[in-house]
Each structure stands twice: as structure tokens, then as C-alpha cells.
């Protein structure tokens, strides 16, 4: 009997990226909940109730999010619990000192630390961008081992290091030279614009990298 051609097994370097729209819809609620809503809640309470009212509102927002997850039977991520504890400590220190700068200084310094972590991961050849990407979208080891993929994640780690550095530098300057209202909205806008630009560059660059890698993997 004549042999029937069998389909070639997928090349170990091949990989398909989920649709961009699906990724954006997955990330949008988290961006609103984690970035936009807390600023709106704090600013509204600050304008109506003053500093202490705003600090209480910030703490209630975080613990309300935890309570909402528990009420719906969803698990509470450990990072959210740590964030709640961090907000509680920052709010207490700001209330004692009477300075909103104390409340916002710690996350700004944290942004600077994140920038340095991205930067340090490059010479170590363990790009942080790759670790974050694989946490969101599992990828085969053979694909991650491709030289073009390794170079891509090293460059993207440098990009995100720069983004977080600019974010931290502008935030620190505004925190000590502008009003809290200006700091809140301008910084939020800056985070959104820089983040969106960096995400666009990252996704488009990754798609270009995928085309090259999958092109090499395509059967001739």
C-alpha cells in the first residue's frame, strides 16, 4: 500500500501569540481597578473630606476589593494582600505626619527600584521582561531558547527599565514641586501614556520576532 504522508510535527521553535484584543480585554479591568479607580477615589475624598478622609478612602478601596473577591468566592492573590498591608502602613504614617507626600513617596521609590531591577536583569542574561511574559503566556522552552527571542527580551527589559525610570523621576519632581491634585492626574496620565507606548512597542516587537522565528520553523 502506498504510504500516506503524515503532517510534519510542529517545529520546537514555533509559537503562536494570543490575539491582541483578547490580551487587552484581559488587562483593561486590572488597569482600571489598580490605576485609574484608586486615583479617582483618593482625589474625590481629598477634595471633599481632606487628607484623613482620602487616606481612609484609599484603605477602604483596597480592603473593599479583597472583600468583593471573597464574597464572589474568588481567591485573593498574595500580592493584593501585601498591597493592602502596604497601603495601611502608608496611610497611618501619612495621617501621623499630616503629609500626603509620605503616602505617595513609597510607591514612587518602588517604581525606581523596579526600573533598576529590569536594568540589572540584562547583564545577568535573565531578562525580567521574559519572566513576566511567561507568567502571563506560557511559552515552550525551545522557543525561549532561540537567539532572536533572547535578544528581544533583553532589549524589552531595557525599554521597561527606561519607562519606569522616567516615571519615577517625573513623579518625584512633581511630588515635591506640584500640588497633590496635579501630581495625581498628571502622573496617572503619564503612567497611562508611557505604559501604553511601551506595551505597543513590546507587542509589535514580539509579533515581529514571532514572524521571524515561526518563518524559520515553517516546513519547506
TrEMBL record:
Keywords per UniProt: Membrane, Transmembrane, Transmembrane helix
Pfam families assigned: DUF3159
Ranges annotated as spanning the membrane: 35-63, 75-96, 102-122, 152-176, 182-206
Keyword Transmembrane helix: yes
Superkingdom of this protein's organism: Bacteria
KW Endoplasmic reticulum (keyword) present: no
Identification of the protein by name: Intracellular septation protein A
